[in-house]
Known about the structure:
The chain has 259 residues and is an alpha/beta fold. The protein folds into 2 domains: 8-46 and 188-258, HAD superfamily/HAD-like (Rossmann fold, 3-Layer(aba) Sandwich); 86-185, 3-Layer(aba) Sandwich (Rossmann fold). The chain has 8 helices and 15 strands. The radius of gyration is 18 Å and the shape is globular.
Amino acid sequence: MSDLDFDGLVCDLDGVIYRGDRVVEGAPEAVAALRARGVRIVFCTNNSRSTVAQYVEKFDRLGIPTSPEEILTSGTVTAEVLAERGAVGQVAMVVGGDGIRVPLVEAGLRVVEPAFDGAVDYVVVGLDLGFTYDAMRSSARVVRNGAALIATNGDVTFPAPEGLWPGAGAILASIEAASGARAEVMGKPHPPTMAAAARRLDGCERIAALGDRPDTDLAGGVARGWTTILVTSGVTAPEDVGSVQPRPDHVLPSIAALI
């Protein structure tokens, strides 16, 4: 891979660094080698279930010491965007976990549960392993009443050790169907997250996007004009590489192959 030269890396997490709680073999060594080369890394995930602090703790457990500044989640991006739009003090009904709630509260929004019966400005949807019919009904109702529907990401699945699990996009689809609205999506490959990643790598001259999903990781990298690297350690199986769109610049079995 001597032709693969970059000084900034936007690196996906699920299916690239780990699957569930299991680290991808060789990932800690690959990250250490990249850092030794002077490559700046942004670990960028569409999964909004966990907070940045929780990701830092998980990375430590997996043998990859990481600073909060290196972690970018779709929940963080959502909070940054809403704050930039002047949403401080407004009400956000959250379908999701602390990975959404914590950054929204830190950004100055009032966060409420789907059972809330007052006025709501935003319904923010992410991965919620406890998602219920009542949550779908309540969130769809407030969207029909005028609340803006925001999605941290549209990933319909995510890789787990035993296969693919339903993702935030699957939950979002039910709320869109029930409300008749289309969500504004913040995560990869959409501009909010890609722009946030680029800001964190300001000064880098050659940026690469590394991930296991063509429709998010690769598409987001292509939109920014970055080199794209597809790994087959996650959602995309080796036998499917020939048909993926957009086409990656490089295909590797895992992040470990970078070194």
